[in-house]
């Protein structure tokens, strides 16, 4: 995701720079949020494969929710921080610890990661440590929950594992029962019901998370009549995230989506055949998945329709790599759209 807070050094400082600014999100008076900006313990419940290099992790709040006012609340589009003790970080060339042996799925991934190709790779930045009064005990990274179960005190995150990544080296050691520490919430996106008539969102890969949670919460609000369009870009069919979830959201009158695949992977493509039915044969009835890149002309066409209702009534949401969001922004600027938010 492109908007990493430039002030966060990722060290999991006790006096975290992120906590200087209070959250803009308010809670109903009868609700207490478990996420109160201090690290809380969550147990890893399960890890399931979601796509190439992406796994869905479920975490459960360890002190069972005793106070019935307590809830896990992460406003749509916002994220949490996961921290791990540096001293406990798993080194891939070291003998795996027990918990890692317990998770053959992540162990298998570690040996066979899908090598990134063509897509922009995360750039390494070294930031000065914020809290210099303490040693660098922790490593921390932001992740965006996509689902909650209040009754069981769980949340789900989609995590793309990065070969060689520091937090990835910790995540691959997790298995059911592993203890983790999370705090939140962070993020400044605020949604007001019916503020816009249309929202058109463009996302790429795992960056679908904040947009999905935003669109989902708008659709869950029966009083919100905003018309939503999602354009999600992935490398290939195996890389498509939340495929079943998007298909079920399509049942809402005010939601439409399209998925664009940047690579054709069938034998016809390898043989240079320009068009074939291989993808269509793998899709479900009426599934809007296209084996072509999202082109500028198509972005313009998608935005023209809601623009007919007037510029102020349209909000564009973006989430993806720097090059992806810049590509979409060039059309947004060309059409002089004022309301554009990049997660
Ligand atoms: C607001 C926000 C929300 C996010 N939400 C999610 C989410 O929901 N899901 C998700 O999967 N991610 C999310 N991310 C990204 C996530 O926080 C991490 O950046 C990601 O998981 C990689 O962390 P890491 O420690 O494993 O990799 P890092 O150690 O940070 O490395 C990142 C990449 O750089 C490469 N690298 C490492 N060292 C070097 C080096 N010396 N030279 C060159 N390359 C190197 C690694 O191989 C890796 O590919 C979010 C980011 C932000 C800013």
Automatic annotation (TrEMBL):
UniProt keyword Oxidoreductase present: yes
Keyword Acetylation applies: no
Boundaries of every FAD-binding FR-type domain copy: 37-192
Cofactor(s) required for function per UniProt: FAD
SUPFAM superfamilies attached to this UniProt entry: Ferredoxin reductase-like, C-terminal NADP-linked domain, Riboflavin synthase domain-like
Annotated region described as Disordered, given as residue ranges: 114-134
One function term, GO molecular function aspect: oxidoreductase activity
Binding site for FAD: 141-143, 158, 160, 167
UniProt feature, compositional bias: Basic and acidic residues: 118-134
Keyword terms, alphabetized: FAD, Flavoprotein, Oxidoreductase
Family, similarity comment: Belongs to the flavoprotein pyridine nucleotide cytochrome reductase family.
PANTHER family xrefs: NADH-CYTOCHROME B5 REDUCTASE, NADH-CYTOCHROME B5 REDUCTASE-LIKE
Name the record gives this protein: FAD-binding FR-type domain-containing protein
Organism: Anopheles arabiensis
